[in-house]
Amino acid sequence: MHAPVEVVPISTLKWTADQQLAIAKLNTDQNIFLTGGAGTGKSTVIQNYLREGLDGSKTTAVLASTGTAAILLGGRTFHSFFGLGIMDGGVENVVARATKHQGIIKRLKKTDLVLLDEISMIGSAEWMAAERIARIARKRPAEPWGGLRIVAIGDFAQLPPIVKTPMRSMNPDPYSQDLFSQEMREPEKPWCFLTETWQKTEFDSVNLREIVRSHDSYWNEILNELRWGEFTARAKEVLDERIKKVPLEFNGTRLFSRRNQVDRLNHERLHTLKGTVKEYNTIYVGNAQKVDELKRNAPIGEMLVLKEGALVMFRQNDPELKYVNGTLGTITKLKDSEVRVELLNGRVIDLKPTSFNVLDAEGEPAATATNFPLNLAWACTIHKAQGATLDKAHVDLRGVWEHGQSYVALSRVRSLEDLTLEGYSPSGFKLDPAVKDFYRRLT
Q1: Rounded to an integer, what distance in angstroms lies between the CA atom of residue 109 and that of residue 139?
Q2: Is residue 281 packed enough to be buried (19+ CB in 10 Å), middle (13-18) or exposed (0-12)?
Q3: Cα Rg of the chain (Å, integer)
Q4: Is the dihedral of CA 155, 381, 428, 165 positive or negative?
Q5: What is each CA distance from 133 to 12, 62, 106, 343, in whole angstroms?
């Protein structure tokens, strides 16, 4: 029987020593880089800071590297805030365009703090362009970021920046030779930590080391090995033991690398249920371009198709802390304006529709999507599962292609008992040596 999972209010949490250090440093005026492996509580620390630690007299811009992360965080994208667009024309052209835009200049002048989540997916070119734009807009060219305070959160051992062009052509300034070990080959990705801009930002770094998502110490040790790309004999032994064939009726989430695999399985499982299908159309309101952005990035789709008995995943954190992003449950009743979900821990939730917003560059809602914050949960992509805590998962790692993808998938559960594998490839645990070198220097 699956162990009950209780959601613990932030106010009652027992903070680890590293988390206490992070909270203390966040309450200074320093630039902060908050990092740590999956499940170490980075999001919980930041939620606490946003609720209790911000200086109300200062203007804060809450940003994320991707549209999906920004929507879940209730913030803006890094690209829209700094006016980066799609980075066409290179850094110089992007900076020139952005610094001619009065709206960008105005909001950068009035902002005191930028809080940036999922920094690992910000590339070197975007990072350098944004910093230069801030200095010009704020008319403080001698100060990094023009005096803006930067709080960055993320783990470079997880999902990396998307590479669209060769690295050297993306970066007009060559990497400083002292930023990584002399013996190391050229890094595989355009990591922002390899730029002079990162060095000049002078982050006070906090590395959360204790995994709090899982209390299985042996599994946590294995996860840490895999995070560093160390496919050890004991990691192989543990993963081999978790390879199991699960029935089609598996009452958990299967993680795949490809979207078509997810859609196919969710459709098949829904079709096997008896009863009548009920469709809930997502209601979109707002600017047409931003509505399109919502359709691409919101954690809910354009239509939610349900039956009683369907396994679903909550796609947001409940303000009353009854569930979190990734909590699983079964639909037990469907109404026009309410659905009843029984969680795996036995708790029953009567759920109303909720709204997800895309904010414009000024931080105002530009478009809204309203529906129940649920997805069918028999299957999910690894990318969509990043940041979620899953109650049970069956993972197929045979088709991974990206740095950190296997580690992200395996680290979604609270214990090894909650994880089974369809298969994996040892090559799926590779880590760019630049990342390992960065963290060796950080610690």
Answers
A1: 9
A2: exposed
A3: 22
A4: negative
A5: 41, 18, 12, 47
